[in-house]
Amino acid sequence: MSDIFDDKWLQGGRLTDDQQKAKLGSTHTLHETRQKIGVAAQDVRLSMCRLDSSVVKLQDSRLLRRSIPDLTLLAEVIEVTPVHCVVQVSKSTGDLRACREFCRGLSILLNGEQLPGSSSDLEVDKSD
Q1: What whole-number distance in Å separates Cα of residue 52 and Cα of residue 77?
Q2: Number of CB atoms found within 10 A of residue 38's CB
Q3: CA of 30: how far to CAs of 9, 33, 107, 118, in Å?
Q4: 17, 31, 86, 94: which has the fewest Cβ within 10 Å?
Q5: How far apart are CA 83 and CA 112, in angstroms?
Q6: Is the dihedral of CA 94, 99, 100, 105 positive or negative?
Q7: CB-hemisphere CA count at 13 Å for 99?
């Protein structure tokens, strides 16, 4: 099982110009992974709206007053085991650079590192 999380396609979450999706591996619980998505979203100024227990919608928080947001992402967390998840990020509208920036930040957090220059609190609440 651990081999799946060593694959390049799960570690980097890289998007090319013709791709609309990225997959990232997480060795955290479902709850911790959702928290890290929130931190990564906040770091790139995206607001997070939970659609259901495994899917969140991310939008540019600076543009919420507009009727059509410039960037909309969906992040689905798929629990593989209690401490292994796959995060699939899909870009529906907006700038590919912003999506790449979010994926890069989320990848850093999922690998247990702190985002450079981030003022976000990365402590995970273990009480849930």
Answers
A1: 10
A2: 19
A3: 20, 5, 15, 23
A4: 17
A5: 14
A6: positive
A7: 27
Per-residue pLDDT of the chain (128 residues; tens, 9 = 90+): 444 444 444 445 555 545 678 899 999 999 999 999 999 999 988 999 989 888 999 988 665 555 555 788 999 999 999 999 999 999 887 778 888 889 999 999 998 876 666 544 444 333 43
- Cα–Cα separations (whole angstroms), residue 67 to 5, 57, 71, 93: 39, 16, 12, 13
> Cα separation of 59 and 72, whole Å?
5
Residue 75 CA to residue 73 CA, distance in Å, equals 7
* pTM exceeds cut of 0.85: no
Q: Residue 20: name the closest of 77, 100, 127, 110 by CA.
A: 100
Q: How far apart are CA 56 and CA 119, in angstroms?
A: 22
Q: Which domains are seen in the chain, by residue range?
A: 2-110 (3.30.310.80)
